[in-house]
Amino acid sequence: MQRFFTGRLDGPQCSGKPLEPIGEVNLGETFIIESTLEEERETLGPLFIKSVKSGDVVSIHIEDIQVSKWWWGISPDYGMIPEILERQMVEPVVGDYKDLGFIGFYIPLDNGEFVLPGNIRVPLRPMVGSLSLAAREVCPNPWGHGGNMDINEIRKGSTIYIRAQREGGLLALGDLHAYQGDGEIKGSAMEANGEVTLMVNVSDRFPAPRPVIEREDKIMTVGMGLRYWDAVRAAVRDMTYLLMKTRILSLEEAYCVAVDGGSLRNGAIWMMSDHYQITMVHREHGRIPRTVFLELPFKREG
Predict the structure, then answer these.
(1) Which of 42, 101, 160, 270 could cysteine-pair with 7, CB 3.0–4.6 Å?
(2) pTM, rounded to two decimals
(3) Distance between alpha carbon 25 and the CA centroid of its chain, in Å?
């Protein structure tokens, strides 16, 4: 089985510039992509998917995720923390995780559950924070090509459908989390080293302009926008269209099913922080999109 380390590649995947692949995979081939906590410092290229053309919808099935190391931490200057905690309140609490610029510490795992302070327990539930194909033109991150979506349903057993914008798709993956609740509220989760086992194919099952996530009993349309309600509208539009196509419903029927039967959930809500938006504009990264996803009960027919 082939094994790769693509790096997260958020910037290059959004740049619209030519990218040099580090390897090739075939449709229907199972392969592994490794991810490490230091991945954002890497400059490796994406994977070329043979037989994929621009305009094809690529189905990316996550067969397994194994994590081998994780940390939990905060930064007083990151995400929503500046609006809640002052620096002098945070620094004495935990040691300095210098390699990543975060104040971080290890969380023990007991019988498949992380034991948080106060004996609060959450399950080990590995997920992929950043998954993308390469964009044709300069675009925000995340956007229609995927990117740093931080959606905890991108995990073992999920299939993610993304429309290719370039020949070969150019797949990159990283930012593994051992556990993350909806929203990744403070800008990081239980960040992890690990590896993801994948299989890619071409499918016309969910031909949306933005990513679609499918699990055994539900589908999720992912909406992005520079304003929150633009992201919501995008997710609702995509779900409405997919219901019209897959369930042969009228526009009115599909819309009502989408908004009445669906549950709106947040992607990386920390990106919505005024502090973070101002910081990113100051650093000349531009405004960061809001990301939501609309979840609907949905099973394959036949």
Answers:
(1) 42
(2) 0.90
(3) 21
